[in-house]
Amino acid sequence: MQFHILVFASFASLIAPFGGFFASGLKRTFKVKDFGESIPGHGGITDRMDCQFIMGFFAFMYYQSFIAEYKASVGSVIETAIQGLSAEEQIEAVRGLTKYLVGQGQIKIVNLGYISFQA
User: Is-contact 93 85, C-beta < 8 A?
Assistant: First the structure.
């Protein structure tokens, strides 16, 4: 947990301020002094929150990539892969898997009499 905090702190102090630099460059490009008038003298809410946009994006991506736990079973992975196949491709996949399992000695061909199998 402390490692994740260290990563967030490092990003917040070293990279996130570049959001302000990017926002300043954007304002200069469009010859705009401030993004808004809601905070007089400070350029509006967007000028105060520009680095927060980068931090929010980083936090989301970091969480999804390194912290979130995804539970996937072999069955769910195979089901996801099979769903995109046509009926003929599904049958071919079952035949290929059957051929592999028979070759490995994991199943006997007698158990799969309902599948027309050509060795």
Answer: yes
